[in-house]
């Protein structure tokens, strides 16, 4: 028969059980054993500072200790600089200098006294040849330092100090010397960019943009389901192409043939012949909206990425699906191609970036550093590096293995697009209509732009979906949510004097992840 208890008793028992469960705190440090600590410190002293133990001590200290080594708990032999002579100097490090670890500072040793010139010279004579070869600028740490930092693991040095291994007379001893914290190098000066043209004509959000290789015209795709071709110099509309039955999400112009490729939320990927302005090929296979596409620079291969979590590689001429790149666990938002390995790079809403082996159709490397969706990836035109954009950070990476270089922090918004030119100007465009311009090498944010929306639009329709530099890299085109295309150019009148770099060599706080 189960004994019944009052609620009070049951609650008390539950509390007691909880208390018993957590009372044994295994994380508490083990109490220090004096004897073993002394042995450890003696060994540490001999190995780290054996080559400086012969250094002279103060005559007052010698008198206090009766000339013997009674004050040293580790039984080390103390040497005076010159036997039989009175020592007239004291060597001071960067800290007050006790005669040994665990020995309290006396009134004399608490005072920092610098040796006189003659004393310093006699000290140099007293040092053995191997010791005198040590760099004069290095400061020997006090034995008190060793004692103070004895509990710290070998790998973590005292703040601001690094162990420099110095070869001295055949035996290695470490001299503690201050290490400068890494500072950001001075960024290259870039003139600011200014808005000089706004082109309107689309009836919906402008979702994608591309400039043709001859730099005569550019093409845009929109939520109004049309593709429009514009004259780059004048900004006039040349041609509208209809055929998609939903938002056009990607456009690209081939440098190898007179073809334009487009993709959209209708799952379609189309190839347009620009001599006839007609669709000549369809690439069927994606199971959901197609978010982006890119052409391989050297072979006739098209790569598309989709909301079905895959990227597909197509043979341009035969329309065959060569590979289906599967591995992402959420929509693939962006894809880029290059001639060198890895030839395909994808960024996804599953927060990862994947570098792919084109021949095998398999992942080479998966980069998991981002915490949020990766909607934009851009390859540097000259360096073997690339950048990825996510609401948490813009990150720079090194090919071929995707080694992390640095974070570009500060653009706290959903980054839809990235573009970079040969001068090292990186542009990030965000969902809230802000555009940040960065120096690629240093990650310095030299300009922030938030262009006004087109008259008649809501402020909430401020958003940048795509941006691209023209082939001369002197114009920057952005595709926006207020149904316009905005064109920016460098401010010719700006100089380094009128627009100085407001840069301070602050300490870099680079996060690995």
UniProtKB/TrEMBL annotation:
WD repeat ranges, renumbered to this chain: 199-240, 241-282, 283-324, 325-366, 408-448
One annotated GO biological process: mRNA splicing, via spliceosome
GO cellular component, one term: Prp19 complex
Record SMART domains: WD40 (SM00320)
Keywords: Repeat, WD repeat
SUPFAM superfamilies, per the entry: WD40 repeat-like
Pfam families: WD40
Family of this protein: Belongs to the WD repeat PRL1/PRL2 family.
Protein role: Involved in pre-mRNA splicing as component of the spliceosome. Component of the PRP19-CDC5L complex that forms an integral part of the spliceosome and is required for activating pre-mRNA splicing. As a component of the minor spliceosome, involved in the splicing of U12-type introns in pre-mRNAs.
Assembly description: Identified in the spliceosome C complex. Component of the PRP19-CDC5L splicing complex composed of a core complex comprising a homotetramer of PRPF19, CDC5L, PLRG1 and BCAS2, and at least three less stably associated proteins CTNNBL1, CWC15 and HSPA8. Interacts (via its WD40 repeat domain) directly with CDC5L (via its C-terminal); the interaction is required for mRNA splicing but not for spliceosome assembly. Component of the minor spliceosome, which splices U12-type introns. Within this complex, interacts with CRIPT. Also interacts directly in the complex with BCAS2 and PRPF19.
Protein name: Pleiotropic regulator 1
